[in-house]
Amino acid sequence: MEQNHDVGGQWLYQPNVEEEDTLGKTKILKVHSSVYSSLRLASPRETMGFSDFPFTAKEGRDSRRFPGHEELWLYLKDFCKVFGLRDMIRFNVRVEFVGMVNEDDDVKRWMVKSVEKESGEVMEEVFDAVVVASGHYSYPRLPSIKGMDLWKRKQLHSHIYRVPDPFRDEIVVVVGSSMSGQDISIELVKVAKEVHLSAKSLEIPPGLTKVIEKHQNLHLHPQIESLEEDGRVIFDDGSCIVADTILYCTGYDYKLPFLESKGRVEIDDNRVGPLFEHTFSPYLSPSLSFVGIPRKLIGFPFFESQAKWIAKLLSGKTSLPSSDQMMQSISEFYLSREADGIPKRNTHDIADFNYSDKYADYIGFPHLEEWRKVLCVSAIVNSIENLETYRDSWDDDHLLQKTLQDPYFTQEIPSV
């Protein structure tokens, strides 16, 4: 069941955001995608493909190594077409409720209530299993800033940022200096009068330093202490500006507004859990599972391994540890994160290739190829040093040419 008219999820670009709350403060969002018009991939395309469908350049399309968002959407459309997946998808169907039919039974079944968006028809159906793959880059995560509710000027989250033109000649404060904050700031300096980037730390990567030195109207600040009704933005160091707009590039919250699990799966400070290996509820598996919750890993190959584990489980070809064993594993994982000083809100940030390989071992899925790891790290290092140019200029071409000789890229792919 897919709420939009086509496949793609985040990668199905939605240019019209006028009806969305500017800070996303509604239970049900009208806009799912947070992709902005100029967004390009941060990872090289050759690292991103599924195991049986390389993400190679197509004639007449965006052939860049770090293509724009539309190219990834077209890749997903091609994948669905080649493997006949569209026939399995109900489009324009929004799931409003998922809950247990037989809470006390060992074998759970699920009531799924959905709405056909065009006709308004409500459907209630019972299923043996539910897989939640609804994404986590839609619901804005906002900071708590003194005076935020009283500040009368324009405030919005990057969830609804699309193009820089509405900010022409404005003084804009961008809150958050991670990937989207950097990207959007670089775009805004070309049209805005001034761009003030507010970061948690003033110790920034060399690439961002180069960008700030290059653009006289781009300024770095510490975090915001308060917002004043007269339009002033006061920073932690006591400095102050009068701004027209505040743009929050502060990330996203995990939300599952449709799921009623009777407390078995809850979200606490952006930790979805308890989930065994970020995928299975110890109390509700195998009938409830999740795909795509982990962040900061090579996404598509990992999601593929999740899907294969779930499919094997639901078809009776494998089994999970006991509920107690799964809970023990989860507790140990939480303790290890705590020992490493990782905040609860970053529970699902993996940033470790070894985890993908460990996960694959549960079902005999191949480990990440060494070339994927090497090219991914090479791109990250280049982006840290050369933020503005890394998508168009790199020094790992020798690795790339060697990679393209790998059997993965020479396998016979069904034509679209």
UniProtKB/TrEMBL annotation:
It holds the Pfam family FMO-like. Its EC number is 1.-.-.-. Its cofactor is FAD. It comes from Arabidopsis suecica. PANTHER family: DIMETHYLANILINE MONOOXYGENASE. Signal peptide: none annotated. The lineage of its organism: Eukaryota, Viridiplantae, Streptophyta, Embryophyta, Tracheophyta. Catalyzes the conversion of methylthioalkyl glucosinolates of any chain length into methylsulfinylalkyl glucosinolates. This is Flavin-containing monooxygenase. Keywords: FAD, Flavoprotein, Monooxygenase, NADP, Oxidoreductase. InterPro entries: Flavin_mOase, Flavin_mOase-like, FMO-like. GO terms for molecular function: flavin adenine dinucleotide binding; N,N-dimethylaniline monooxygenase activity; NADP binding. It comes from the Eukaryota. Belongs to the FMO family.
